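Q: Can I see a sequence and its folded structure?
A: Here is a first one.
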Amino acid sequence: MTTVAKPLSSNPNTAAKETADPRAFLDEIDGAEAMKWVLAHNQTTLDRLSKDPRFAQSQAEALAILQATDRIAYPSFAHKGMVQNFWQDADHVHGIWRQTTWDSYKTATPAWDTILDIDALSKAEGKNWVYEGADCLAPDYTRCLISLSDGGKDATVIREFDITTKSFIAGGFDLPEGKQSVSWRDADTVYVTREWTPGDVTASSYAYITKALKRGQSLDQATEIFRGTKADVSAGRYVLRNIDGSYVMDMSYRGIDFFHTEQRFYVDGKAIALPLPTSSSFAGYMQGQAIYTLKEDWTSAGGKTFKTGAVLVFDLKNALTKPAALEPTLLFQPDAHQSVEGLSQTRNRLVLNLLNNVTSEVWSYQYSGGKWSSKKLDLPSNSAIAVTSADDQSDRVLVSVSSFLIPATLVMVDAASGTSETLKSSPARFNADGLQVQQFWAKSKDGTQVPYFLVARKDIALDGTTPVILNAYGGFEVSMTPSYSGTIGKLWLEKGGAYVLANIRGGGEFGPAWHEAGLKTKRQNIYNDFQAVAEDLIARKITTPRHLGIMGGSNGGLLMGVQLTQRPDLWNAVDVQVPLLDMVNYTHMSAGASWQGEYGDPNDPVEGAFLRSISPYHNVKAGVAYPEPLFETSTKDDRVGPVHARKMAALFEEMGLPFFYYENTEGGHAAASNLPERARRYAIDYTYFMQKLMDK
């Protein structure tokens, strides 16, 4: 995709500030000129890749995996002994929300009863509806607020639905499209946080005003009950409930930035704040005990110091009577190699999902007689374990267990007794014979040891010829774990490639400190870590730059853009997915303003200078031999937005640099709204990698 290079005044790294932006037409997301550009480049990319016979093969193989009817239908606990599931396959492209009994679910062929058919709804209304979940009102759980997205956007419409009649309720709650949140107050009242009048959003494009809406009222009749400020990331008021669904009290929040929140509890109409750091997170409420996690060290008024990563518990109502005297109990303190990945609640148990050296553990905690006790649940070691559902009517939890080479198994565990039952196992989607998983450590530029996993053949030739895809995320305290992927296995590992997952700083693999080490102007640590892993692979003679490719999405897409511009010598393929790339202007693009806590403020002299120094869009230079990248995004992505990828590709085009570009016109931030679209995405990705890393 090469054109005649234009004068370098069109390069944002060299252009005078007053120069008109030659790529400004791409800012208009659905503009005619922009979409003409998008569709033309989509076609060029598809023409180039689809001529390769491996494209059709990869697409068919990926679709077969995604639509396989023998895959696990992951359930969630529902009321009165039922289990619910959302399912997509070849016959249900948009999907169906369905339910069955537990006895039926455990059989090989459960008798599912459809609650809501999203395909039929889309056809009837002429929409590309994407199901975004249901919030059902306790204690009956029959009245639900259904969220539907047109094409996968973050913005949704919300409608009230009756499970017993399997229909939307005439005259029920019905909220037009918007980036909004809704919570039940009672059967006839909901709290709605949305853009009530044009402009009632923060700089991050999120709502900050909450109103109480009564059944039968129009939106303009709702009563305001909370207001944040336009300077917040987002703000709102909602309801705290017991595990049985009963009302406890109202709560509100103001997102100061992505990682700091001012929280209030409402007692007898009075808003009360606790003296915990704004970086701490309210993680649950169990038997009167509030559960918080710390992201920084904190010393109570009584002089007791709690360390970052700690899980704290205390009697909430007592604390609200004398907030300044708060003295929590330490429930769990991770060490330097641990992190808390998630907390879930059953009827009587608190369940902690932990990472220990990037492998999972699950612990069950009981509160009885004013004291806490714990035990580790007996689950496979050296695996990725995800708690997929917890029962509010018993102490059962559902967990998915997998690893790079072992397909997922669904296990039901009693968090009280520790007994477990294997419910379903997914069949293997690729031939893992001869493959192995190894964990290595690379030394980053500042001496930090960075772990990574290598999935490759046991007899791998140490001659630098192995095609390798290196993946990482490196941001927002998100951990990357060794889980099973049928598409990576079938489309890459089976073809002779190797896969590497790097646990670089910025993630949450080793707790908040691992994340903090890559925040804002310390972000170069993240990029150095990634480069160190690549150099370690080369030093071990596993691969060479000729056979080394990289991929990542969203924040990982920014990581890819930085690697493309900082170390073009290290890679021969760079897959840049739904990325941020213009770090000078990112706060004015889609929801970008909300991420200043992660990346920094472009208007701050120090942070702004750093952001410009790493911004991929501002660091493309003439005369540099860049690998030919693949830019992928989605027109309907209203979180990061497609403009980053569009303008980076257009800049490459103007400078005469080769590239691939594909923008799915549906799909939101996931860049695919259904399984066939995902299969096409996989075909694009892996055909690109095979051409770049495997072909001579």
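Q: Show me another, different protein.
A: A second, unrelated one:
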Amino acid sequence: MKRVLFVLWILIAVVFTATDFFIEDAMLTNSAQPKLGGTLRLALPSTPESFLLYGSLDSSAYSVIMGPLMSPLVEYHPITNEIRPAIAKSWTVSSDGKQVWFYIRDAYWSDGKPITADDVIFTMQYFVMNKYARGNSVDRFTIPDEKGVNKPVTWTKINNKVVRADLPSPYGAFLTVLTAVYIYPKHKLEPLIDKNDLASVNKLWLTNTPPSEIVVNGPYKLSQVIVDQKIVLEKNPYFWKKDKYGNQLPYFDKLEYLIIKDAEIRLAKFIAGEIDYTAVSASDYPRLKQIEVAGNAPYLLFASKPIGSTPSPVHIAFNFDVANPKLRELFRKTEFREAMEYALNRERIIEEIYNGLAIPGGGLVLPTNKAFYNPKVEQLMRSFDLKKAASILDSLGLVDKNKDGLRDFPDGTTFEFTILVQNQPKDYQQIAYVFSEELKKIGVKTNLQILDSSVVGQMFGAGNFECGIRAFGNQPDPQLRKAIWQPGQQLYYWHYSTMDKNTNPPSPVFSEMFDWEKRIWDIFEKAQIEMNQKKRKTLYDEWQELYYKYLPVIFVARQMNFFGCHKSIGNVVQSKEGLPTFTIWTTFRK
């Protein structure tokens, strides 16, 4: 009877079932079948302190665990950034958006044991939702119910291959946060946990654990650890991905990480051909590119369209709540902020500051994030035009009354404002200089205030600035940046009066919001509980358009990302969108 009821409930659920993913579609080459075998060589700055993701806060550990050793329930597509199946071959969302069934594929641990629903529930219980685990994700899986009471997401085993997540309320970013949940083996780890001391999980699978004891579900398994020298992984014979030719992935037999603490030495070893793939700094890229163009390099360099959260896209903000009443009235006018965007010479900034290696704007959502990016914002950005900027300022009554070359307020006092900028990174200051120089050409007086970054952060946090230059990193899902871009939130620093700081958590003050801000607030509230990803994108498309139309902040530029790859590595290509594709399971030695 229970089985019948379960089937009936599935039939009335919203039809949102992802296709079963088994053939790896990141294979972009049109050449013959790739070669199998060999060793892929990468680098790490330090030896991982643990091979348990949730027991560590170590970036080197993350590099080895997240992808090479372990797989999540769902994952990002390496090209489109869309969410696709992983350990879960598909999922179904209920009609009310509060239950999600995950159907686990026929996959196995590296010791040959099947991956089951028990492993998912074990991972959630003892690691993800364990507040004593150093790398827990309790906050991401604790959400308000319909009454606003924070409650955890709970998990129920339906059978060995089906697990259900019960959400306190619909949660649009649920699949996004699941991409960072890597599933661990219950049969190996549960016996090692002290149930009376849940902090004991932080002592599991440390670097001194014999590699044979570490059971994984990723493309590679641990083979050797030589502290401060190298980490060696070998092909996992039970990995579940195959290519279009029927080859089991990965192609390489081994993945070797060299431990190299010094960044200059890492770069030297890459140039010498001892490392196959690496990120390259913006400062090193021009020099290395010259060597490549001259034909004297064993590598290829890629200047990629921006991906990931760093470096952050720089923006200019005018304080809607500034103490000076004349500036406050002016800064709140959309027309004034339009004039400021017309006065922003993005092309000059990109050429002079970023050596041409940046894109204009780059805020909110990156163009490479196909899951959420709205290309319409490219047409909404106002191109540099000082005549238009000057004309708007004239219409606002900001004209040179005393013929001293500077614009004045209608009462005859000089129109001027101070630009607050931190001393690092240097491009922030350089942007401020260029912006000031262009404004000076149309009679706008600015004063630069360059301070230590910690002091600047405190001043922004207190709303103690007139105009400022700042940057926030991108995230793959806009919901993860709600605290920045939704009016009334903690980091909406250019209009703090939309937030009541006397409540905990702060509550929105709608009377202080413009109509477009109220709409943005509403968009985030709706998108947060919308489980249909297409509908979420429609909402976030509108949000992006509103930002570029009304300019609560003005996005300047986002530096590109740079990568280098040894010429002997196959299946590393750059897409027509400018994105290099490299995965440890689809590359091979030519």
